[in-house]
Amino acid sequence: MAIACQSSPSTPAAASVEQPATPVKEQATSHADSASAVGANAVAANSERIQDELFTVNGKPHRQLTTQALIKQLGRPDSIAKGAVECGSVLDIPINSPEGDFWYYSKTMYDVNGNQAILYLFDVTTGKFYGNIGKLVLNQNTTLEDVRRFYPLPVKEAGSDSGTVSLPFEHGGQLMDASLNLIFKKGRLQEVEFYFPC
């Protein structure tokens, strides 16, 4: 999965993505009990991560597309921030490619480099975009409580009804540096950002 690098658009990035430790039973009576407790904790920890291949936007997998296809879907962008992807793009492009641009469709942003584009951040308040993580729908009606039912630890870490809930991505059982950042205001989802640290 390609995920746009964090640069300096308008949304602050999460400081770091660390999986919170789940306490293990302090007094295990045998090695089998210890192994069982560790296995249970691994399952609990993994349930707080999201599988990158299961996330969809408007019912389709989050994948890069050509700028021609993007223009066909959404028309010309409202504005373009040239060279705004400061740390380079994670699009499938040559490594020495020049810095990418951000194409804005209102508050929704695409990371664009050459003729390739990928959704970087989408605004759910207009109803044009929505996401799905399994049964969790991310749209203008999504509340912090909706997310808490599926991902209680990241919501607890966010600690406020206005701010960012970071859901770490996992691929092939491995925790990635990338995360899906859900930006809330007064307990209501506003934006969804694909975050990848520089």
Notes on the protein architecture:
The chain is of the alpha+beta class. Helix 3 (about 145-150) packs across helix 4 (about 150-160). The chain has four helices and 13 strands. The strands form two sheets. Strands 1, 4, 5, 6, 7, 8, 11, 12 and 13 form a nine-stranded mixed sheet that branches. Strands 3-2-9-10 form a four-stranded antiparallel sheet, covered by helices on one side.
Task: Give a quick precis of the structure.
By secondary structure, this protein is an alpha+beta fold.
List the helices and strands and how they pair.
Layout: H1 31-46, E1 50-51, E2 55-57, E3 60-61, E4 65-66, H2 67-74, E5 79-85, E6 100-105, E7 108-113, E8 116-123, E9 131-133, E10 136-138, H3 144-150, H4 152-158, E11 163-171, E12 174-185, E13 188-195
Largest sheet: 9 strands, mixed
Could you tell me the strand content as a percent range?
Answer: 35-45%
SS content category: alpha+beta
The radius of gyration is 18 Å
Uncertain residue segments: 1-46
Give the helices and strands as they follow along the chain: HEEEEHEEEEEEHHEEE
Report the principal-axis shape.
globular
How much helix is in the residues?
10-25%
